Amino acid sequence: MGKWTCKQCGYTHYGDEAPDRCPQCGATKSQFYCERKRNWSVYCVLICAIIITIFCFAFCSCRTSAKVNNSAVYSLELNRYMGQWYELARFDHRFERDMTYCTATYSIDDDGTIKVINQGKKDGKWKSSEGKVKLTKEPGVLRVSFWGPFYSDYRILMLAPDYSYALVGGSDEDYLWILSRTATLCDNTLNDIVFEAQRRGYNTDNLIWVEQSSM
């Protein structure tokens, strides 16, 4: 269905095609032009698709243009990495916001699957969440998921020879953690870890030093 308008007199006709002659001024069929009814639902879908495409492109561009060196360690003995880690410092992010006494405990189940249990205290209550861990082709890069099929990079940037502390980052400069097997580390060791983060381009002024206890 279209809206046909006569160029000569402005007469309007609705139909699949223009009339042979304008009943008002006698103009021929060729003097009509069509304004077809728009299918706004189709236009909306197309506009949304374009917006989503632009957003995804911008998002991926931001992710792939990380300003930091987040290359992972070249070797990792997985069994030695298992067990409990204390979170001494981190960049702020919404999943751990305002949490203290944070720990991450890794374990390998009998079927070979790896899990991690994150725990912390917020508003006087203990909270915990269990995630799944996948290995990658890069020894120092793990993939962690706390929600369904969505996995995020867990990149081990620095690891003590005796596995007593670790510096961990994400896929970009927004995530950083300092982990330790104990609730405290000596100042010299902490300074070395912070210096390594700075060397890689991380803004260590954004580190939040997490309240800890020996628990």
List keywords for this structure.
8-stranded antiparallel beta barrel, elongated, 3-stranded antiparallel beta sheet, alpha+beta, 215 residues
CATH architecture of the largest domain: Beta Barrel
Q: Low-confidence stretches at least 5 residues in length (pLDDT < 50)? A: 61-65
Shape from CA axes?
elongated
Q: Strand percentage, roughly?
A: 35-45%
Q: Which strand order do you get reading across the main beta sheet?
A: 4-5-6-7-8-9-10-11
Structural class: alpha+beta
The Rg value, from CA coordinates, equals 30 Å
Characterize this entry briefly.
The chain is α+β, with helices and mostly antiparallel strands. It contains three helices and twelve strands, in the order βββααββββββββαβ.
Describe this structure in words.
This protein has 215 residues and is an alpha+beta fold. The strands form two sheets. The chain has an eight-stranded antiparallel beta barrel with strand order 4-5-6-7-8-9-10-11. It has helices at 40-64, 78-81, 187-199; strands at 2-6, 12-15, 32-36, 83-91, 100-108, 114-122, 125-135, 141-147, 150-159, 165-169, 176-180, 207-209. It has two domains: 2-64, Single Sheet (Rubrerythrin, domain 2), CATH 2.20.28.10; 78-209, Lipocalin. It is built from three helices and twelve strands, in the order E-E-E-H-H-E-E-E-E-E-E-E-E-H-E.
List the helices and strands and how they pair.
Elements: E1 2-6, E2 12-15, E3 32-36, H1 40-64, H2 78-81, E4 83-91, E5 100-108, E6 114-122, E7 125-135, E8 141-147, E9 150-159, E10 165-169, E11 176-180, H3 187-199, E12 207-209
Antiparallel strand pairs: 1-2, 1-3, 4-5, 4-11, 4-12, 5-6, 6-7, 7-8, 8-9, 9-10, 10-11
